[in-house]
């Protein structure tokens, strides 16, 4: 089977360098309710340093003239938060690698992140919060039930 057929069948493998996980420095994360239509490095630290206001009912900040409301979300027990970056993508500005094996390295780690929403607090129905609740729910569903 040539690489084109394997890529078309979805046989891509992702590897994470375990040494990078241990050495990843602490990172500050903000999950914003917007999409950036670019895929390149950006000087985020230079342009995004929010002046967060702590209100009685959560966090508030302005982003490009819009009011955002947010809350700090902890990483659930038993899980680890890490920022992963693909390594070896070829020269900058060049075509992406055509390999089926992708190598990721951790560039940061986190124990919590700030989840932002437009105008109102994210709330328990936020997709991210539901996704973070799934591992403990799955463990409970699949746990051995004691016989009486």
TrEMBL record:
Name of this protein: Ribonuclease H2, subunit C
PANTHER family associated with the record: RIBONUCLEASE H2 SUBUNIT C
Pfam families: RNase_H2_suC
Gene Ontology CC, one term: ribonuclease H2 complex
Region (Disordered): 79-100
Species classification: Eukaryota, Metazoa, Chordata, Craniata, Vertebrata
An individual GO BP term: RNA catabolic process
Gene this chain is encoded by: Rnaseh2c
Signal peptide: none
Gene3D superfamilies: 2.40.128.680
């Amino acid at each position: 089977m040539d690489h084109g057929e394997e890529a078309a069948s979805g046989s891509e493998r992702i590897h994470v360098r375990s040494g990078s996980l241990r050495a990843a420095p602490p990172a500050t994360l903000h999950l914003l309710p917007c999409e950036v239509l670019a895929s390149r490095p950006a000087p985020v630290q230079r342009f995004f340093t929010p002046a967060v206001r702590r209100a009685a009912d959560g966090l508030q900040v302005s982003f490009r003239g819009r009011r955002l409301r947010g809350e700090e979300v902890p990483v659930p027990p038993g899980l680890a938060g890490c920022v992963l970056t693909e390594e070896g993508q070829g020269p900058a500005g060049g075509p992406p690698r055509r390999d089926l094996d992708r190598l990721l390295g951790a560039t940061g780690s986190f124990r919590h992140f700030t989840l932002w929403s437009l105008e109102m607090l994210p709330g328990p129905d936020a997709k991210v919060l539901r996704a973070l609740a799934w591992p403990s729910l799955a463990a409970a569903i699949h746990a051995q039930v004691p016989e009486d």
